Automatic annotation (TrEMBL):
It comes from Companilactobacillus ginsenosidimutans. Transmembrane segments: none annotated. This is N-acetylglucosaminyldiphosphoundecaprenol N-acetyl-beta-D-mannosaminyltransferase. Keywords: Cell wall biogenesis/degradation, Glycosyltransferase, Teichoic acid biosynthesis, Transferase. Belongs to the glycosyltransferase 26 family. TagA/TarA subfamily. InterPro entries: TagA_TarA, WecG_TagA_CpsF. It catalyses: UDP-N-acetyl-alpha-D-mannosamine + N-acetyl-alpha-D-glucosaminyl-di-trans,octa-cis-undecaprenyl diphosphate = N-acetyl-beta-D-mannosaminyl-(1->4)-N-acetyl-alpha-D-glucosaminyl di-trans,octa-cis-undecaprenyl diphosphate + UDP + H(+). One of its GO terms (biological process) is teichoic acid biosynthetic process.
């Protein structure tokens, strides 16, 4: 286990404030370090619990960041409180702003072709300091071609939106091909490109973003069952402590 990590049902989280985390990432970018960031929510914690290979990949990442209020609540319930939630989307925006300021090379991978194109267009339009070296949609057979493209372009930051666990498997397999900060960002390009709206700020503040997504995308209901199951397991763990 990494030093100071907090164990939530087998997933080991770093306990940083967002400010501390940003400082670390900023230094990593300055040092041109090879880093892997994962941002698990309760659904990912549950799937890691049932999948050793995935669990090892997550726990061996350089940063394991609590995306989702459920993680913070779970940590409180277990008596190991964490500083704060740090969302994958906010981390994506921080990396983009850093890249813009520091004139870094960025590669975008994942989401539907029109979504990744719209995301690339937004970067070219609004973040002119970024050297966007390449982008590719997330619907491909992994025959090594995409990884070869990333290797050839040698970006400083690789943003991967293939959903979990696909994006973590991809990063784990190919992160040695180039020295970059690699992160799995889930559905973030759908929001970044303007294809999907993020919940209004008040809903984010009330920690009801999950409910907003459910109302907007009722097909997520099956995935939402992960939350009560997760809370039940936390209760059980608490009793056994
Ligand atoms: N996706 C992809 N390739 C796939 C499956 C999914 O690029 O084979 C993309 C999908 O288009 C979406 C993202 O991965 O942009 C996953 O979104 P989801 O809402 O599942 O992620 P979450 O934010 O809930 O982790």
């Amino acid at each position: 286990m990494h030093k100071n990590r907090i164990d939530i049902l087998g997933t080991e989280f770093d306990n940083f404030t967002e400010k501390q985390f940003h400082e670390l990432i900023s230094t990593d970018l300055d040092n041109k370090a090879n880093k892997f960031i994962v941002t698990p929510n309760p659904e990912i914690v549950l799937s890691a619990r049932n999948n050793n290979r995935f669990s090892n990949i997550v726990n061996n990442a350089d940063y394991v960041i609590p995306d989702g209020i459920g993680i913070i609540k779970g940590a409180n319930m277990l008596g190991t409180p964490m500083h704060e939630r740090i969302t994958g989307f906010d981390t994506l925006m921080f990396l983009i702003e850093q890249a813009n300021k520091k004139h870094l090379k960025v590669y975008l991978l994942g989401a539907k072709p029109e979504v990744i194109k719209a995301s690339a267009d937004r970067i070219k339009r609004e973040f002119t300091g970024i050297d966007l070296v390449g982008y590719h949609d997330g619907y491909f057979n992994d025959n090594g071609m995409v990884a070869a493209d990333i290797e050839e372009k040698q970006p400083d930051i690789v943003l991967v939106a293939l959903g979990s666990p696909k994006q973590e498997y991809f990063i784990n397999k190919y992160r040695d091909r180039c020295t970059a900060v690699w992160i799995g960002v889930g559905g973030s390009f759908d929001v970044f490109s303007g294809t999907k709206k993020r919940a209004p700020e008040i809903i984010q503040k009330l920690s009801l973003e999950w409910f907003y997504r459910l109302v907007k995308e009722p097909t997520r209901i099956g995935r939402m069952f992960a939350i009560p199951k997760y809370l039940m397991l936390i209760q059980k763990e608490k009793r056994n402590k």
